[in-house]
Amino acid sequence: MGKSFAVIGDPIDHSLSPNIHSAAFRELNLDSSYIGYRIPKGELEIGVEGLKKIKINGFNVTIPHKIEMMKYLDKMDESCSVIGAVNTVVNNEGVLKGYNTDMDGFLEPLKKREITIEGKKILLIGAGGAARAIVAGIAKERAKDLDIANRTIENAKNLSEFAKKIGLNTSPKKIEEVDQHIENYDIIINSTSLGLKNESSPISFEDVNQKTIVYDIVYAPMNTDFIKKAKERKLEVIYGYEMLLGQATRAFEIWHGMKAPYNAMKKALLGGF
To answer: What is the DSSP string of the chain?
Structure first.
């Protein structure tokens, strides 16, 4: 009996997940399928009922449903409740359990490179949806300090409050202020959507320390202005597609209980650009 999986959201046609997961199934000869399923805002409840009817084995959740989906879960793991959003669901005979693979997805590329977060000083730019999961990951790995910079300082303050609650030493900053002490950071992360439309980098890299690691979570284009500027300074960079792959491999492992074929999934993802 084959298994079926999906990603739900709106818009959904640009999703790279069907390609990535289908490549994994092919690589391991699994009798499984994965499709994009458009559920518009306001129709989530009906959509989820439909997925249960067809006995879907699991699904990923993307914008705009990552928070609302929590209402329809029967169980959730810790990452889900801490982050307050769900992006991966397992359907066990009508019992839905939610996970959030954003945090592990974010940490995965750092672990692959043996970069430790513990004791480090980190700058996070952006305080939107993905930022909470990143903050949770940084807290879990015990960073020394986390500064959160955002255009709207209010959002940075709210995220700082969350960071403090989960044990981080943190302060909000205006985006204009970060260039002043930029040389002090060990890791700089862009979690804003700047770069999606080729906007210029939110910071200037002139004074960035040579040892600083630069991580952009935007995955298309692969080389955002933020990444390009970091490369010009010969800094070590982590690409957004690596976080996306980390999320996908984690979801695969939750659903199938086996190690994900990382390289096959990577090839499918990069082929999609």
So the answer is: --EEEEEEESS-TT-SHHHHHHHHHHHTT--EEEEEEE--TT-HHHHHHHHHHTT--EEEE-TT-TTGGGGG-SEE-HHHHHHT---EEEEETTEEEEE--HHHHHHHHHHHTT---TT-EEEEE--SHHHHHHHHHHHHTT-SEEEEEESSHHHHHHHHHHHHHTT--EEEEEGGGGGGGGGG-SEEEE-SSTTTT-PPPSS--TT--TT-EEEE---SSSS-HHHHHHHHTT-EEE-HHHHHHHHHHHHHHHHHSS---HHHHHHHHHHT-
Class of the CATH domain delimited by 3-100+243-271:
alpha beta
- Class of the CATH-defined domain 104-238: alpha beta
pLDDT tens-place string over residues 126-142: 998 789 999 999 999 99
The yes-or-no answer on residue 140 being catalytic is: no
Domain ranges for the chain, please list them: 3-100+243-271, 104-238
**What are 74-105's pLDDT values in tens digits?**
999 999 999 999 999 999 999 999 999 999 99
Same-fold call for 3-100+243-271 versus 104-238 = yes
Question: pLDDT, tens digit, for every residue of 167-220?
Answer: 999 999 998 888 888 999 999 999 988 776 777 888 888 899 999 999 999 988
Catalytic residue among 66, 120, 173, 229: 66
